[in-house]
Amino acid sequence: MTDRPRSAPTGTAIEDMPTIDSESLFDDSDIVLIEHKGEVYTLRKTRKGKLILTK
Fold first, then answer.
1. Which string of b and e fits 5-31 if b means at least 16 CB within 10 Å?
2. d(Cα 42, Cα 11) in Å, to the nearest integer?
3. What's the CA gap between 13 and 19, in Å, rounded?
4. 11 near 30, Cβ under 8 Å?
5. What is the DSSP letter of 30?
6. Residues 1-55: pLDDT tens digits?
């Protein structure tokens, strides 16, 4: 697995894409539940400050 930047959708400048600060999602927690199309995902902050998304 490599860390590669993903390209923006065709015709969309990266500056025009919505940006959400992760601290506003997490507040004082290390775990956030995200519901997407009827499925619940867990977004976690690691001790090293990385993010992990699991189903």
1. eeeeeeeeeeeeeeeeeeeeeeeeeee
2. 30
3. 12
4. no
5. S
6. 556 666 656 667 888 889 999 999 999 999 999 999 999 999 999 999 999 999 9
